[in-house]
Amino acid sequence: MIQAPAVFGLLLTLAYLIGAIPFSAIIARFKGVDLRRVGSGNYGATNVYRALGLNYALFVFILDALKGTAVVYLTMSMFTSPVLHVLIGFTAIFGHTFSLFLGFKGGKGVATAAGVFAILAPKPFLITFLVVISVIYLTKIVSIGTLIGCVLLPVLMVVFNTSPVIFYSILPISFFIVIKHRSNIVRLIKGTENKLK
Fold first, then answer.
1. Is 129 exposed, middle or buried (0-12, 13-18, 19+ CB in 10 A)?
2. Domain range spanning residue 133?
3. Cα separation of 37 and 123, whole Å?
4. Mean pLDDT, to the nearest integer, of 33-41?
5. Where are the alpha helices (DSSP H) in the chain?
6. Plot region of 41 (φ>0 → left; ψ -120 to 50 → alpha; else → beta)
7. Which tens digits make up the pLDDT trace of 118-130?
């Protein structure tokens, strides 16, 4: 019989590999587009929007989110510890951001993190998601919505009395996503941030 540590080790490897699948690059390549040469050069859904339009951007966002949801759900079905659930979620986000298949480059981790916390903290996540979508719709600036979400989700986790393990896990992830958006923050301050059309 395979021991639990070995099983979890396999899950960690699987989480990284699934997280590393570059759906944005694959779909863009299929359409004859090199995302590195479009817009911000990023592999996220926002840059897919610039290159291929809204439908493809939504498709990529959903696929990237499902990477996080799938591996966390699988882990939750096998282990009861929220610490292990969080570690798997971290690994999927890491894989998405530092993809083996893209020379250890990738997206900013937003969609995959959304998929992870959609299952770990569904109520706080749903409210945060609705607020983020509303902000993006009103401002036409994705980064503003994302940064607001990074602040709002931890606050709502406190309001909903979410497990301390999950609450403390969102803090470094939120910080990481904010750091990945540092160039966006500079452009926001300068008033030159890109807007959706």
1. middle
2. 4-190
3. 38
4. 85
5. 4-19, 23-30, 45-52, 54-78, 82-97, 110-120, 122-139, 142-159, 164-180, 182-190
6. left
7. 999 999 999 999 9
Beta bridge partners of 99: 105
Q: Is the pLDDT of residue 1 over 50?
A: no
- Tell me if 90 is assigned to some domain: yes
128 neighbors 153 (Cβ within 8 angstroms): yes
* Cα–Cα dist 60/54, whole Å: 10
Q: What DSSP designation does 37 have?
A: G
Q: In total, how many domains does the chain have?
A: 1
Residue 194, pLDDT > 90, answer no
User: Does residue 197 fall inside a structural domain?
Assistant: no
Hey, how many other C-beta atoms are within 10 angstroms of the C-beta on 108?
26
Q: How sure is the predictor about 2, in pLDDT bands with cuts at 50, 70 and 90?
A: low
In terms of Cα–Cα distance, which of 167, 143, 141, 142 is closest to 153? 167
Checking if the pLDDT of 11 tops 50, the result is yes
Phi, psi angles (nearest 5°) of residue 195: -115, 150
Q: Which residues contact 181 (CB under 8 A, 6 or more apart)?
A: 108, 143, 146, 147
